[in-house]
Write a structure and sequence with these properties.
By secondary structure, the chain is an all-alpha fold. It is about 70% helix and about 0% strand.
Length: about 450
């Protein structure tokens, strides 16, 4: 196909999805499932218009998935408005810490004991599959800043955190592959990649997000500028937080997520210090609503005299830009997963996907949430909706660029692509039936 034909096809796809969105919401499927099917249709298994393979280094795929992850992490963090002292934050920390470690251990054991893989390869593959997805989980994660559902908050926070906390263990697996044994390198890895890089990434991102977010809001308030490009402010924060963390040898994924949380907390601080006069401060549930909720449909320069309105304009425009960017990246990457299925779908990958989704994930979540302020019903839903996606594709591309090669590269690619596709279908169908009936407990 020529580039004009591809452009026409993309235009037709976007038009179809825009006009049929209401119908799609009523069906037991998600947009990601449709994109996956389109990828299969245009790939080698269908029309043969596009063929790609992941049997070696693919720099373009690494860079595409890298940007997709950091953009979605920032947007996801921007939607999490509760202060860190709220009990709702307990579940994300538990899931991204002990829950993720249990998941890695369970998948690595399966690959070693059932698949006969060496421990270094099994560890690498398990770490690649460990993070949950911030892009494809839109139906089960926080979509509005005033959403206080603990199940959604747990899944959103987990997806934001574990895309970064899984990275040290991907690196661990690759180092183990190169050394072929556990030795003196483990100490420097733990010191630099875990004890330093994780907290440093979170701190750098949060400080930048809160500081630049507060500055952007204050300038919008002082200057009363209705045309300032807040979308560029969000894009700047995504890029600066990521590169600043990487420059300090910290994890940029965690920094991008923390930058979104920091910008949201800057908005929260502005609204707390100078709330909009039209909102009642007597009721703690409505005293400080998300700033974007107080922005008039057609704001004027006079409206920006209220700091809360200025904060709402900045955050609202940033969220709109982020959501649009996220949807575009979702289309491209999920279509590519559909194309990849022709060369990487296999039976063992399907077995790994089923065991991960049905056995390992629920057990890991149940153990990690012991004592957490979540109900049994919420725990079961959290255990089921551990959606795998773009983060795993990035880690796979990273591993292929940094030492994973030969037959191991092909085998790992197979289970990752198969697992992501299986997760898109299984979780997409089940969300339609499980979520409407899910009684959830608020975060307060």
């Amino acid at each position: 196909m020529t580039h004009l034909q591809w452009m026409a096809a993309a235009g037709g796809l976007f038009l179809t999805m825009a006009l049929s969105s209401a119908l799609v919401r009523r069906l037991p499927l998600t947009t990601a499932m449709i994109y996956l099917g389109i990828g299969v249709a245009v790939g080698p298994a269908g029309l043969g218009a596009l063929a790609i393979d992941l049997d070696g280094p693919t720099p373009w795929f690494l860079q595409l998935t890298e940007f997709a992850v950091i953009a979605s992490l920032f947007v996801g963090g921007l939607k999490l408005r509760l202060p860190f002292t709220e009990p709702a934050w307990q579940a994300p920390w538990r899931l991204a810490g002990p829950g993720m470690l249990l998941t890695i251990a369970g998948v690595a054991a399966l690959l070693h004991l059932v698949g006969g893989w060496t421990w270094p390869v099994a560890m690498t593959a398990a770490a690649i599959l460990a993070p949950t997805d911030p892009v494809l989980a839109g139906a089960v994660t926080v979509s509005e800043a005033d959403d206080r559902d603990r199940m959604r908050y747990a899944l959103s926070g987990e997806a934001g955190l574990n895309d970064g906390t899984a990275f040290p263990f991907v690196v661990f697996g690759l180092l183990w592959l190169q050394a072929d044994h556990l030795g003196a390198w483990v100490g420097p890895w733990a010191l630099s990649r875990l004890l330093w890089a994780v907290p440093a990434g979170l701190a750098v991102g949060y400080v930048l997000g809160r500081g630049i977010g507060r500055l952007g809001i204050q300038l919008r308030h002082w200057q009363r500028d209705l045309r300032a490009p807040s979308d560029l402010l969000g894009l700047a924060l995504i890029l600066l937080s990521y590169t600043a963390a990487e420059g300090l040898h910290a994890w940029g994924f965690l920094a991008a997520f923390a930058a979104g949380v920091g910008m949201r907390h800057a908005e929260r601080g502005v609204v707390r210090d100078d709330p909009h006069p039209d909102h009642d401060e007597g009721d703690p549930e409505v005293a400080h609503p998300p700033a974007e909720d107080v922005v008039p449909d057609q704001p004027s320069e006079h409206d920006l005299a209220h700091p809360a309105v200025a904060a709402g304009v900045v955050v609202g425009e940033t969220l709109t830009f982020g959501d649009t960017l996220e949807r575009l990246l979702e289309v491209v990457l999920v279509v590519l997963v559909g194309v990849l299925l022709a060369s990487h779908a296999d039976a063992f990958g399907l077995l790994v996907a089923v065991v991960l989704i049905v056995v390992v994930r629920p057990i890991a979540v149940r153990l990690a949430l012991i004592g957490a302020p979540t109900s049994a019903a919420q725990g079961r839903l959290i255990g089921w909706f551990g959606i795998r996606g773009i983060g795993s594709l990035y880690y796979l591309a990273y591993a292929l660029e940094h030492g994973l090669g030969g037959q191991a590269a092909y085998a790992v690619s197979n289970i990752v692509v198969t697992t992501v596709a299986t997760s898109i279908v299984a979780h997409g169908v089940s969300a339609h039936f499980l979520l409407p009936a899910a009684g959830s407990q608020t975060a307060s």
